[in-house]
Amino acid sequence: MKYYLIAGEASGDLHGSNLMKQLQVLDPGADFRFWGGDKMLAVGGTIVEHYRNTAFMGFLEVIKNLSTILNFIKKCKKDIAEYAPDVLILIDYPGFNLRIAKWAKPAGFKVVYYIVPQVWAWHKSRIHDLDKYTDRLLVILPFETAFFRKYGYETTYTGHPLLDEILVFKSNPDFESKYHIKKEIIALLPGSRMQEIKLILPIMLRAIKNKDNAIVLAGAPSIPDDIYLQIIEKEQLTGKVILVRNETYEILSRASCALVGSGTATLETALFRVPQIVCYKGGKISYMIAKKLVDLKYISLVNLIAGKEVVKELIQNDLTPENINLTLDDLNKNRQKVLNDYDQLILDLGKEGASRHAAESILQTVQ
Predict the structure, then answer these.
(1) Is the backbone of residue 15 left (phi > 0), alpha (psi -120 to 50) or beta?
(2) Is 35 in contact with 47 (CB distance < 8 Å)?
(3) pLDDT per residue over 156-196, tens digit each?
(4) Exposure letters 25-44 (e unless 16+ CB within 10 A, then b)
């Protein structure tokens, strides 16, 4: 069968690639065409547009790039129509994917949404669009099924795909020697988008510049080395910060603590049982708009799933070097409590095999 997938950022690329692998197992003749990244490309098929070109963060940034985004949507619709897939698989990336769904379902295409938009956080009216313009909703957070049921809509809970990704991870014993690491690691994961890295990474670096640790920075696949190196040089930390690419799990499997941007990385860090501080800063106008629209007590997946503050979130004006250092001191004192909360979180996430469950549900939808 022919599968058309749309993922718009690094986490979607990761989950999309694992889904594609499972679809290949169940359907050896699977043909893929997609918007995604290097991980999906490694599985096979044809890439239409790389997510590095389509990832825009924040309300103001979206408005600034609106004409570019609209052109991408037009290109995507045309490409889907020409490819005529048996099923269209939308992976997260709601601003773009919901627009595609509203066009694709009435046009006669089967539409499956995998990793549905966080409608429980903001813009709840999208719940009705999700049901109307899709054939199946596949959710990955344990509370989402009950949330949708409140509105009369059924979903399929697949489990969270990160559980499988981390389960199969095998550590490289030569990692430390490869990067000449001889001290405890503080991991820096400032995000995967250019805007957030430029805002968050300098503050992280100022906070840890006097720490007697190995400072290891996880580079995002779509961000050039020069961006990181310029920021490191500006903060006068050349030679102290170790930039590592495509080995985030190697870093997390060894880190004593981590400074993490919001998003999937917060959950990955928790699954590796690394105490963390969630660091988020957006553009001033975008943040003000988001604050009015988003109905959430927490921004990190860890705290949202747990329903309480497991990890400290330093957001916008609270994200300062001084606050990071104070919170790091608290982490050292409360380390065991954080680890206990992580263990409960892992139990709450439940079943493994998310990508396989998702692939099975997709085939059931099409057949």
Answers:
(1) alpha
(2) yes
(3) 999 999 998 898 899 999 999 999 999 999 999 999 888 88
(4) eebeebebbbbbbbbbbebe
Domains and CATH numbers, the chain: 2-160+351-366 (3.40.50.2000), 175-349 (3.40.50.2000)
Calpha distance 103→4 (Å, rounded)? 14
Rg of the Cα trace of the chain? 20
The 10 Å CB-count burial string (b at 16+, else e) for 178-198 is ebebeeebbbbbbbbbbbbbb
Task: State how far the alpha carbon of 347 is from the alpha carbons of 39, 163, 331, in Å.
Answer: 28, 11, 22
Determine the Cα–Cα distance for residues 55 and 52; give it in Å rounded to an integer.
6
Could you tell me if 162 and 264 are in contact, meaning their C-beta atoms sit under 8 angstroms apart? yes
Residues 56-112: tens digit of each pLDDT: 655 556 666 677 888 999 999 999 999 999 999 999 999 899 999 999 999 999 999
Q: Report whether 209 contacts 39 (CB < 8 A).
A: no
Helix H or strand E encompassing 5 = strand 2-7
